[in-house]
Amino acid sequence: MLAVMATTYRCPQDGARADVTSLTWCCPVCRGPWDLDFESAGPLRPGDLPGRVNSLWRYEEVLPLSSPATTLGEGRTPLVPLTGTVSAKLDFLMPTLSFKDRGAVMLAELARRLAPERVVADSSGNAGTAVAAYCARAALPCTVYVPEGTSPKKTEQIRAHGARLEIVPGDREATARAARTAADAPGTFYASHVFNPYFLHGTKTYVYELWEDLGGRLPDAIAVPVGNGTLLLGAALATAELLAQGLIDTRPALIAVQAEAVSPLAAAFHAGAEDLLGVPAGATASPTLAEGIAIPRPPRARAILAAVRESGGTFLTVTEDRIRAAQLDLAARGFYVETTGVACWAAVGGWTDRSVVVPLCGAGLKTGLAA
Question: CB neighbours of 222 closer than 8 A, spacing ≥ 6?
Fold first, then answer.
């Protein structure tokens, strides 16, 4: 029996619905990503948290799954100051060395309960390593599609967890297309960190941890690197839930950071658009050190743009030189972080007028130093 507290998948574009126990990975009408109609088990009471399990599962009231069998102890990463106003959350200390564990454990746990014949995923690296690890934990056969040029350390990690690795010629978009074709095969669970909303309900725990560690409040702003927007959309979910529960008075601004070389969302935001600005269907990403956010056509673009605007936030972009400098600067402070994970520090590290938290999303050992 599938123990979930959600009701249905729902398409935000046309209202189509599907049962959460199905293997339907996208809206059958528009082929877009699902949202989740979700009713929490009850209000989250701060006084109930002491003594609970020291992982993201301590926030069980607000999660769409409970009592997981696939956990690796993910979550509850440290929050440390970098300057007087900027703090860093060390999500590179997760079991697979990136923040993607927050969502991957949700997907693997859901898949375990659905018992599909196979699991497929696509990734520029970190989501793939996370899904591979948690599928190994759940004893699920897993195939991970990655673009050519993916960091050898990431592909090594995927293989080490026992997943089948499919290296796709071309960029991240070509990889996604290959995985989605495979996902249409009967008996397949598509562990998509983009299309499956359970992943977003995992990433939202990042903000619940901030709220708890800051004594029941949040910083003025939360900066996140944005490619497909899974951490940002999770943050938007959490801040909305905390506000609705009366646990915060105002929502922090969401600061979305993109590499200047691949910044379709920033361009749309600053043009006042509600969606991407005419990105060609076959568009490929320009080279950037921030490979994890080099996404020219994010499927949840409309939701990302709306979330940033609703929060009173903005989009910032960073050059390749600033990414290089930020990685070295963090390393000099004791934090060896991969190039995608330093983008936010590159963007807001000099802020002094308001408090902001940046995620250090992935370990530097995954990609090495920027050339």
Answer: 207, 210, 235, 239, 252, 253, 254, 255, 356, 357
Burial zone of 334 (CB within 10 Å; 0-12 exposed, 13-18 middle, 19+ buried): exposed
pLDDT at residue 273 tops 80: yes
> Are the CB atoms for 245 and 204 separated by under 8 Å?
no
- Summarised one tens digit per residue, pLDDT across range 106-148 is 999 999 999 999 999 999 889 999 999 999 999 999 999 999 9
Angstrom CA distances, 356 to 210, 265, 319, stand at 11, 21, 21
C-alpha span between 99 and 315 (Å, rounded): 21
Q: How many Å from the N-terminal Cα to the C-terminal Cα in the chain?
A: 51
- Give the tokens for residue 264: 């379709």
pTM comes to 0.95
Q: Which residues of 31-69 are buried (b: 16+ CB within 10 A; e: fewer)?
A: ebbbbbebebeeebeeeeeeeeeebbbbbbebbbbeebe
Distance, CA of 288 to CA of 186 (rounded, Å)? 36
Cβ distance 344 to 258 under 8 Å? no
Sheet containing 142-147, strands listed edge to edge, beginning at the edge strand earlier in sequence: 164-168, 142-147, 118-122, 188-190
Residues 216-267: tens digit of each pLDDT: 999 999 999 999 999 999 999 999 999 999 999 999 999 999 999 999 999 9
d(CA 80, CA 88): 5
Give the single-character DSSP code of 43.
P
> Residue ranges of the alpha helices (H) in the chain?
101-114, 126-137, 152-160, 172-183, 198-203, 205-213, 230-244, 264-270, 301-311, 320-332, 343-348
